[in-house]
Write a structure and sequence with these properties.
Helix content: 40-55%
Number of domains: 1
Number of helices: 11
CATH class: Alpha Beta
Distance between the termini: 25 Å
CATH architecture: 3-Layer(aba) Sandwich
Structural class: alpha/beta
CATH superfamily: Vaccinia Virus protein VP39
Largest sheet: 8 strands, mixed
Strand order of the largest sheet: 5-4-1-6-7-9-8-10
Low-confidence stretches: none
Order of helices and strands: HHEEHHHEHEHEHEHEHEEHE
C-alpha cells in the first residue's frame, strides 16, 4: 500500500499511534536525565486539514475530530491518560486554518529543554517544510536522509535513554522485511533503547509472520520485553480502505500495557464501527 500521510492526517491510525507515543514520552520525562527521540520517517510536522489532500478523504473528521467531540463522555482515568495528546492536538484543530500535529510536533511539545530530537526525512520538500514548522528549536535536528540509513547512523545516541519511532509510509512491497532487517541492526547496537514501530493491517498472514520475525530478533538480542498492540475500526478487508493498524513496542515503559488496556476499549467505542471494531494486546 501507499500511505501518503497528507491524505490521512488525524485519522483513526494517527489517534491511536499518537496517544501511545505521548504515553511513552510522558514516561521518559519522569526521570530528570536527558533522553533522545529518533524519528526515522518524520514527515512535515503539521498537516493542513483544509488542504486538498486532507479534504479529499476527510478522514480526520472520523478520527481526531470525533475524539475531541466525545472527550466529555469518558471516564476520569481515560481523560488523564489522553490529556497530553489532546492538549497538543485540540488547539491545532481550533486554529483559523486547522492543522494536525505529526510526531515531530508532538515530540517538540513534550520533550524538555535537556532532551534532544533527530528527525530523518528522505524527501527534500518535506524535510524543508519540517524545518520551517519546527522553527529555531535547538533541541531538534532535521536530517535529509533515508530513515533506515538514519537508524543505523544515529543509534545508539549519547543519551542512555530514548525512543526510536519507525513509521514508514509502506510504499515498498517489502516494508515489513526492511523493518525487521534494520530493527535487528539497531537493537544489536542499542539493546536498552525503546522502539515503537507502526504498521498498517491489511491482512493477517503478513502481520503474523512479522510478529514471528520480530520475536526472533528480540531473542537473538537478549531482549525479553516486546509488546504488540492493535486497533481496528472495522473488519479487516484487503480490498477496502485501511481499517486496522498496529504497533510493535520494544522495551516499552512497564506501565504502558496497563495504560493501553484502559485506553483502547474506549477508542474502539468512540471511533469504531459497532460490532466490527476491536483491539488486541499481546506479548511478543
Amino acid at each position: 500500500m501507499n500511505y501518503r500521510h497528507a491524505y490521512h492526517a488525524g485519522n483513526f491510525a494517527d489517534v491511536f499511534k499518537h496517544v501511545i507515543l505521548t504515553r511513552i514520552l510522558a514516561y521518559l520525562a519522569r526521570k530528570p536525565a536527558a533522553f533522545r527521540m529518533i524519528d526515522t520517517h518524520a514527515g512535515e510536522g503539521f498537516y493542513a486539514l483544509g488542504g486538498v489532500e486532507a479534504e479529499k478523504t476527510g478522514e480526520w473528521r472520523e478520527g481526531i475530530a470525533r475524539l475531541i467531540d466525545a472527550r466529555a463522555q469518558i471516564s476520569a482515568q481515560v481523560q488523564e491518560l489522553i490529556a497530553p495528546y489532546l492538549a497538543i492536538a485540540a488547539p491545532c484543530l481550533a486554529e483559523t486554518s486547522p492543522r494536525y500535529p505529526g510526531s515531530p510536533a508532538i515530540a517538540a511539545a513534550l520533550l524538555r529543554q535537556q532532551d534532544r530530537m533527530i528527525f530523518c526525512e528522505a524527501h527534500p520538500e518535506t524535510a524543508a517544510r519540517l524545518k520551517h514548522n519546527l522553527g529555531r528549536d535547538r533541541r531538534a535536528k532535521v536530517i535529509e536522509i533515508d530513515g533506515f540509513i538514519g537508524l543505523g547512523a544515529y543509534v545508539p545516541p549519547i543519551e542512555r535513554r530514548g525512543l526510536v519511532l519507525i513509521d514508514p509510509p509502506f510504499e515498498a512491497k517489502d516494508e515489513f522485511s526492511r523493518i525487521v532487517k534494520h530493527l535487528e541492526g539497531a537493537v544489536r547496537k542499542w539493546p536498552t533503547g525503546s522502539y515503537m514501530v507502526w504498521f498498517p493491517i491489511k491482512e493477517r498472514e503478513g502481520v503474523t509472520r512479522f510478529y514471528r520475525q520480530i520475536g526472533d530478533v528480540l531473542v537473538a538480542a537478549g531482549i525479553k520485553d516486546g509488546l504488540c498492540v492493535e486497533f481496528r475500526v472495522d473488519e479487516i478487508n484487503p480490498n477496502l480502505p485501511l481499517a486496522g493498524n498496529g504497533l510493535v513496542l520494544v522495551n516499552p515503559p512497564y506501565v504502558l500495557e496497563a495504560e493501553a488496556r484502559t485506553i483502547l476499549p474506549w477508542l474502539v467505542k468512540v471511533l469504531g464501527v459497532p460490532g466490527c471494531a476491536g483491539h488486541h494486546i499481546a506479548r511478543i
